[in-house]
Predict the 3D structure of the following.
Amino acid sequence: GQNIDQPTEMTATEGAIVQINCTYQTSGFNGLFWYQQHAGEAPTFLSYNVLDGLEEKGRFSSFLSRSKGYSYLLLKELQMKDSASYLCAVRPSGGYNKLIFGAGTRLAVHP
Amino acid sequence: DTAVSQTPKYLVTQMGNDKSIKCEQNLGHDTMYWYKQDSKKFLKIMFSYNNKELIINETVPNRFSPKSPDKAHLNLHINSLELGDSAVYFCASSQGTWETQYFGPGTRLLVL
């Protein structure tokens, strides 16, 4: 079966750093995506990893270890507007662009 | 604005009715998708079309029928609506069958 696990909720303080973990078990692997979803809005693309290592994009970075079935999203210099759900999605092998999503991690940033 | 758009944004209807949701993208993408996000917030893919051809068809009741009149549009028709169909339905598109997917604003369907 396909399984994506993320913590349900996290809290952090404005200006701090937070790491959101994602572990996956899928039938093969062809890439991992992170999306941000504010309440009542569409998911918006944040990052993509297909090779092991760290991808940095401004305040956001994403890490992948394929051998461990593990990824994390690192958010630096947290701002209040970063309060949202963060969705981890894996593209398994052999199926066009079919993404398997985790349930998302709801992040609350406090002053 | 270049984007993925959906209509309607909200849809409240009675059990047993038939309804349609429309999606349009002006990004020039070749591939479009329908996802369902239930109350537990899981996003699950339902269908995908590439250049008007169905390429992903998940285990979805056959009351749900997608239709792509051209590669910029993907509509979803639902027959005999049931309570369990209440969810947010998101349309998405990507340049090809391998590229990043971009989502529309969602259609909030409530079946009473």
The radius of gyration of chain A is 13 Å.
